[in-house]
Amino acid sequence: MTVQIEVREETATKLQSIANALQLSLDECLSRIADLVSLSQTNGQEKTEGLTPFELVEDLIGSVDSSLPDDPAAPPHRPPMYHFVAEKLRKQGLKVP
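The chain above was modelled as a monomer; its predicted structure follows.
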């Protein structure tokens, strides 16, 4: 069974680019997102009821590696914190990969 959903074109483009980056079909990608953000009800109560904001996003943390570039041929993206820590380690005489 297939179902059509309506989303803005920008949203569809973003979802497709995420799926491509993960080398998944759009269906598989949406299924994974649904598993991560499952808000289905249990015993008549939402799973999110009484949870802290951290607990709501706990499963999402670390699930996507933002250091991976969109283009596999490009070098990995290094956030500013990486450079600060690398410089500190170099000053201490440690080799940074």
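Residues 1-64 form one domain.
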